[in-house]
Amino acid sequence: MTSPQGFLGFWETTGSAKTFTHPLDPALLDAWVPRSARVLDYGCGYGRLTAELAGLGYGEVCGVDVSAALIARGRREHPELALMRCPGFPLPFGDGSFDAALLFAVLTCVPGDADQTAIARELGRLVRPGGVVYLSDVPLQGDALNRERYARFAERYGTYGVFETPDGGVFRHHPPQRLRGLLREAGFSVRKERTGVVGTLDGRTAERLQIIALREPVAAGPEPPPGPASG
């Protein structure tokens, strides 16, 4: 659940012992991802949702994370799952290898613009045309605690919405248009959105935004000009 480039220390130590709580929406999943789909759970952590997908009958699911500690925990807790540590891009899969990808509470753990863009682009490579990304993440919150810490850390990180937690984590909440824009730039079109409330790592609650985005077909190139007439 971490960036390929930075802020990994937290997820190799304190963060690797956290209990993740960001839930799947089974009805939304059922509507867009058939059981026969090849699914990539990017930022799988210790395989919590990877295991849930397998339990729901998804037979081809692969979980990937950059944290060695989280993948080691996942292999202990779910030895039956295909969990891989992949510290950078490209991931070891061919173009269009997956019918769907999950991106659950991942971008909130990736504070940098460039790292977020790299993740979205890699999913754009890996999800086949006509496949989907199911993203769920935390938009900017309107409560006093979050507004205060957004303002307090904005100068340090250069982005409103990035903040630190007392246990050493660095997180980011997003304007919804930022999440939509990342997907569009990677070749996806937003097809469905839902909002709701989820638990957070510190035991609070937060509003979440779920997005289903379809990988657009690759545009065909222009027709070549006609050759000279034979005669």
From TrEMBL:
Descriptive protein name: Class I SAM-dependent methyltransferase
Keyword line: Methyltransferase, S-adenosyl-L-methionine, Transferase
Keyword S-adenosyl-L-methionine set for record: yes
InterPro entries (UniProt xref): SAM-dependent_MTases_sf (IPR029063)
Record lineage: Bacteria, Bacillati, Actinomycetota, Actinomycetes, Kitasatosporales
GO molecular function, one term: methyltransferase activity
Enzyme Commission designation: 2.1.-.-
SUPFAM superfamilies documented for this protein: S-adenosyl-L-methionine-dependent methyltransferases
One of the GO BP terms on file: methylation
KW Kinase (keyword) present: no
First-tier enzyme category under EC: transferase
